[in-house]
Amino acid sequence: MAQAAHTLKSPKPAAHGVKRHTGLMDWITTVDHKKIAILYLWAGGLFFGIGGIEALLIRWQLIKPMNDFVDAQTFNELITMHGTTMIFLGVMPIIFALMNAVIPLQIGARDVAFPFLNALGFWTFLFGGLLLNLSWIMGGAPDAGWTSYTPLSGTAYSGTHGVDFYTIGLQIAGLGTLIGGINFLATIITMRAPGMSFMRMPMFAWTTFITSAIILFAFPAITVGLVLLTFDRILGANFFVPGGGGSPVLWQHIFWIFGHPEVYILILPAFGIISEVIPTFARKRLFGYSSMVFATILIAFLGFMVWAHHMFTTGLGPVANALFAVSTMLIAVPTGIKIFNWLFTLWGGSVRFATPNLFASGFIPTFTMGGVTGVMLASAPADFQFHDTYFVVAHFHYVIVGGLVMGLIAGLHYWWPKMFGRMLSETLGKWTFWTFITGFHLTFFVQHFLGLMGMQRRVFTYLPNQHFDTLNLVSTIGAGLMGIGTLIFLTNIIVTSKKPPDAGDDPWEDGRTLEWSIPSPPPEYNFKHTPHVRGLDAFWKEKTAGNKGMAPAEPIGSIHMPSATPLPFIMSVGIFIAGLGFMFSRDHFGSALVSFLFNNYIVTGLGLLITFGAMLMRSLYDDHGWHIEPEELEGR
Amino acid sequence: MMRTWQSARRLLPLIAVFGMVLAGCGREDLSVLRPQGPAAESSLGLMKLVISIMIVVLLIVFSIAVYVMIRFRRKPGQNETPEQVEGSFKLEVLWTVIPLILVIVLAIPTVRTVFALGDNHSGDKNAIKVKVTGHQYWWEFEYPDYGIKTAQDLIIPAGKDIAFELTTNDVLHSFWVPSLSGKIDTNPTGATNRFSFSAPKEGVYRGKCAELCGPSHGFMEFKVKAVSNDEFNQWIEAQKAPAVLPEDPALAKTFKEQCLKCHAVGDQGLSVGPNLTGIGSRESVAGILLNDDTRQDGAPVEENLKTWLHDTQGVKPGNRMPDPSKDMGLTGDEIDRIAEYLAGYKLN
Amino acid sequence: MTTTHAEPIEGGLPYEPEKATAEGRNKVLAFWLFLGGEAVLFGTLFATFLALRNQTNEGPAANDLFHLPLVAEATFLLLVSSLTSVFAIQAMHRNRPALLRNWLLVTVVLGLGFLGLEIYEFSQYVRDEKFGMTTSAFSSAFYTLVGFHGAHVAFGILWISLLIGQLAYKGLTAVTAPKIYVSAMYWHFIDVVWVFIFTVVYLLGKVG
Asked: Taking the model in full, what pTM does it have?
């Protein structure tokens, strides 16, 4: 462990001496990774719900040919917001929720490396997400697709502020993601408990590590892309405007240089979750741990050199298409390694099908199907047909919903007792699984055929007599079933929250990693002593050696805690105001005063002033933190 | 519970077969699965190769999954700890090498086909040159060798290679005739794309825009009509013939002053909007109202023209044509008579 | 969890005060990571610039626009400021706060000089050459790339000035030392970026 435990000479304010916030203020000011995890979960859950409703509206519109449930413009706004919301505001925060809840515990740390930045990352994400969703009530949502291809997303063809909400909202939310990525990289590098070498880390910690690295190297690309698009739209720049010498194809490159690694940012954590759930419920260590680590790194590496397979029909020429086709196919190799390693973890195990494992078991075949269609898409000449059809829609939903979302639900059921101290109902969990997976396959399996039969994606309706009608109806019914599955999960959460806490330290009884060696939910300092790690699956190792818990790496001492602070929240509010101000800086308002404030960048300046003021406060006033003394620890 | 799991497993291929039978692979003039030309055939050939390999992979994964989930499930009362296997070098090498071989098997024909389809016939003297321009939301087809333009219906001689040159006038579109060929984007000038396909059989094929281009993206359809060489030459000549204007001079005046500010017929008018020469013999009005006197797939052309001209925004939301009555001040009667005139404007 | 923190370390600072505490070490590590992200950010901006540098849209081209002597002066100022920030860190390692403060002051002054020249350069382009953000794709790419760098310099100047203030107020401690160290890392980074800008934007613009 990087920082040795110094005992401090001068006593610092102890727990009882610290001002404790309660209620809402507690949540706004918290820097505790476990509470931030819960914030991420609720916020991500909220946006996931919004994205889900958008999905149901889309499917309802497509239930029959020439339907007029929503109009064409609204439909384009729905598909744009569904994609953007689900990816950036739905699943990524839930990934961050699980990372925050679990990673410090799994590596035996008392918090992340930068608790303050952790809170800042959450609040910027939330305010970015809120800004994006405000578009619905402030003149129209973005309508150029989640990929926002230029020139369609330029002011000439998308005249509302919709795409501005997209660029600025994502910019703010993306900032939060980048902060989170750096924080987890630093945490995993420096905060591991004594004895936990890299090759003793749980797989979820590994995938978090690699995911964070991808975030670090992929997100700045979209940051630049969004800045350029913002400049085009608000300052009249010419990056993507053909008339001014700009290049629409450049946007596609920038977007996908970020966008393809983003796919692996999403799926790798799910791989990590599955690699935790399966060994626990098979009572057997992960098969081929080292090759799993190797495969993860290889996927991340290859993920950066395949972006142009999203652009086979852009006209890059046969040489580029051939190269990107082959590099894309190569990703199948490390992915295959993973799938077989999971299967052989189950082989010879003692497999229990509790809800988390049910989802993990459903994940393997479902994700494999998504992977298989991925290889099909990689074959460029075949992709000339698949591209921008429902076949692609089916493919990425198999990967993202059948892969990532199933992985997330598995992870949520698995770690729920650790996060909240209560076991989710197994009965309702099984209902969730069967409705969700049945609905899922009904919705998306048929879409492969719709694509092959000539239905292009992003169409707000379709003519009759094209053999599309029945399959679309089936798909819509499936979507409804998925909605029901989600509602059952929500019911489970509500019912469970009303129960008294019932989860022990190791509620699944076969926990293998450090988080199961401490109470559920853990105390705010996580570990009374920093544990001493003696191997992979550290807790399992101690259990099978007949030990009650982890061996301490240090005597019980005073624990230093970071202070709660509202500054991250205030900084994010500032960025939010600055973003709104910038977005409307070229508008004319009814009131001369309002116009004056916006058109002279006064609102933007005010927002930035709040943000930089809060940063200045943070820099000027050192956070001395507070301490939990040994007698308090023993008193519990 | 396991029983339900198993039956769900068995259901998957059933759903697949059900889906296929249900759909019958789609329409002959639209489906990727029923190719009508060499380009679409080579795409489908590759698809068949990939899907065969992938079905084998899926079968292996599914059978191992089903086997381990049944064979190794924990029975009641079972409480021993299984052996903690670290891994198996041999097995891991096996499932690294086999996928690698499969990838190579796949990569070779992929690369070969990429380069084969890369032949765009741009220097081929026997190929028919067509310049495709995408507009929100209609397609313009120019035949530079013959000096003519048309819209929505692409007429080609069957069996001949067509050398396309594609650009857009506004946002990105993507030119796609599934039963004849894969798609290619239309970029703004400067990133002009070239590609080629041919239709050996005479017939009408459905084409679509495959890149989100605005509200009516889904309605940006077109037709490819492959005709015999003679018919093609006849059509070219008819297209070149002088314009036929409405017989009624008043209507002709209105038509010239209002419609021909953007549209063209024969040698008259401008090409801001779609060329209307011979619109009465086209397959559709506005690409989306199918002309069908039997009323199975659409309506007679005159009725379609009236539907269109009376409510352009209702038919194709967000289209750029000024509304004939609201913006151009045409009366309902004038609109109907123009529709009648256009419906009667047939070639050959 | 971090256990050591804010206060002057008794009995003087160790040789590398920025690494005396876990917070300090974490900060330096995280800043390296951040610079990795920044490198991708500027890499994307450079790629954009290279893709659009000949799209002048009938506006001024690089060759007509740039006056190398002025840019060379700015380059000189920024390179020297990087050197002075090295001297500052050396002073910090020798535990000489006054010398540290002086070198930081020199760094800030040089940075201000650079920024002044850049603003002068931009204003010349806009006023005399009619070369603004909206002129062409080349102009947009130029102002965005060089302007992003300029904004980084401006932020660096504000940051280092703030740290000079903190140095006077709080002294050189285990808290202020890592801040000064990472600000120096940042300053070197924007210096390196400028070397690339000088080469790719100005020299290449003059040559080809």
From this structure: 0.94
